[in-house]
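Hi all, posting the design record for the shared folder.

TITLE: backbone redesign
STEP: 1 of 1
STRUCTURE INPUT:
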C-alpha cells in the first residue's frame, strides 16, 4: 500500500481541498472521518476513491475486506492536517458525490428540508429519519451543504442507509403528490393541526423549515395540511431537529 510522509504530497494537498465546498463540487468528491462512519460506508458497499489513515488506525478497522490499492498510509502529522475535529481518530475516506440527475419518487415516508442552515440540525434529522424507518430525506438548494464535515459527523453513516437527495423542493413536492404522498408542513399557525392527533397514512412527506423563518410560504401553500407541536412551557420554540424528530416518530407510531 502507498505510504505518504510529506504534507506537500500532491494527493494530500488535493484531499485537504475537499474541506471546502467549491473543491468538493469541482472534483465531485467528499471526505468522511472516523471509524463508525467509515465502517458504515464499507458495510453498505459504498464506492470509494481512497481509505486514508495512520498504520495504527488502519489496523483498528473492523472490516477486513478492503482493497489494498485504495489504501493510503499516512503519518500522524498528515492525519492531523486532514482532520476537522479536535480529537481525530486518524482515519478518513474519500467518496464520490453521487446525486442522480433525476429521481422517481414513490409512495413512502419522506422528510423535506426547506433551507435549514445549521449542519448539526440537518445531520441529526437525517440520522433520526433513518432510525424512525423513513425512506429518505430531500434537501433543497437553500440548505447547508450535505457534504459539510459537520453534517457528515451528525449523520453518523445514516446517509448510507436511506435515500438522501439534493433536489428542487417544488419539483419534489409535486412528484411526491403525483406518487400518492400527502404533504404536511410544520408550522405554528392558527390553521395548523396538533401533530399528535394527525393520522398521516402510509405515504406522506413532512416539510421542516428554516430555523429562523420556518417553511416558506410557497411550500406551506403546497402542503395538504399544516401541523404543529404545542409549546407547554415558556420557550419560544423548539430546536428544528428536535421538533422534526418528535413529529417523525408521532407519524409512524
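Okay, here is what came back for every position:
SEQUENCE:
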Amino acid at each position: 500500500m502507498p505510504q505518504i510522509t510529506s504534507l506537500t504530497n500532491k494527493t494530500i494537498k488535493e484531499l485537504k481541498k475537499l474541506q471546502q465546498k467549491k473543491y468538493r463540487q469541482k472534483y465531485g468528491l467528499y471526505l468522511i472521518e472516523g471509524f463508525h462512519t467509515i465502517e458504515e460506508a464499507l458495510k453498505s458497499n459504498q464506492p470509494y476513491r481512497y481509505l486514508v489513515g495512520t498504520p495504527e488506525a488502519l489496523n483498528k478497522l473492523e472490516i477486513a475486506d478492503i482493497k489494498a490499492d485504495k489504501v493510503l498510509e499516512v503519518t500522524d502529522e498528515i492525519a492531523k492536517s486532514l482532520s476537522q475535529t479536535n480529537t481525530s481518530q486518524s482515519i478518513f475516506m474519500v467518496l464520490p458525490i453521487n446525486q442522480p440527475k433525476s429521481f422517481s419518487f414513490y409512495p413512502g415516508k419522506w422528510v423535506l428540508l426547506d433551507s435549514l442552515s445549521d449542519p448539526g440540525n440537518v445531520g441529526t434529522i437525517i440520522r433520526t429519519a433513518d432510525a424512525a424507518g423513513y425512506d429518505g430525506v430531500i434537501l433543497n438548494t437553500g440548505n447547508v451543504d450535505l457534504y459539510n464535515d459537520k453534517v457528515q459527523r451528525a449523520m453518523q453513516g445514516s446517509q448510507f442507509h436511506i435515500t438522501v437527495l439534493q433536489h428542487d423542493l417544488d419539483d419534489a413536492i409535486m412528484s411526491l403528490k403525483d406518487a400518492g404522498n400527502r404533504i404536511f408542513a410544520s408550522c405554528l399557525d392558527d390553521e395548523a393541526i396538533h401533530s399528535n392527533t394527525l393520522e398521516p397514512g402510509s405515504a406522506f412527506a413532512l416539510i421542516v423549515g428554516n430555523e429562523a423563518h420556518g417553511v416558506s410560504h410557497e411550500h406551506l401553500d403546497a402542503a395538504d395540511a399544516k401541523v404543529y407541536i404545542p409549546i407547554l412551557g415558556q420557550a419560544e420554540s423548539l430546536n428544528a431537529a428536535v421538533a422534526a424528530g418528535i413529529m417523525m416518530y408521532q407519524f409512524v407510531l
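COMMENT: The CA atoms of residues 41 and 94 lie 11 Å apart.
Let me know if anyone wants the other runs.
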